[in-house]
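HUMAN: Mind sharing a backbone?

ASSISTANT:
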Amino acid sequence: MTRYIDAADHAKIIRKVLKEAFPGVKFSVRTKKYSGGASININWTDGPTQWDVQDLVLPLSGGYFDGMTDYKGFNYHMHDGEEISLGADFIFANRELSDEWIETARKVWDRADGARKCDFWNNARQRWPQDDEAKCFAYNAQIIKALHSKTAASYTMGRSG
């Protein structure tokens, strides 16, 4: 039998995962319930990149959407030998940049040699904003790496339906 974990408790799991992976970074984790489901919105300023957070928490999504067939499906997870269904179908990660973070990145960018800049552009996951190389560097630079999260590792994708 599958145990259901509601969106509020799902958000608590996400908070714990983020605290383990990024100690010292302040995240806002909020649930949003709507007709047909729920989602979790994660917001923070500076710190880890959006993709580092997404890579950590998206495997904990309770659902998925297939746009090709206009189908919303559900992910089931295993935790402590039990099949569970996590209440929030979708998890969104939204990172803001402070002026201080951008200015620090601008100084690093200005001092970087051509090879480092080339490596950065080859590995950048987002080219936003294209009119300001240093701001783009601030947005993409992986300065804070995720630590191991025992909580995240304890939830494994079981099946989708």
Observations:
- Strands lie at 3-5, 28-34, 37-45, 63-66, 71-79, 82-86, 90-96, 156-160.
- The first strand starts at residue 3 and ends at 5.
- The mean pLDDT is 87.
- The first helix runs from residue 7 to 21.
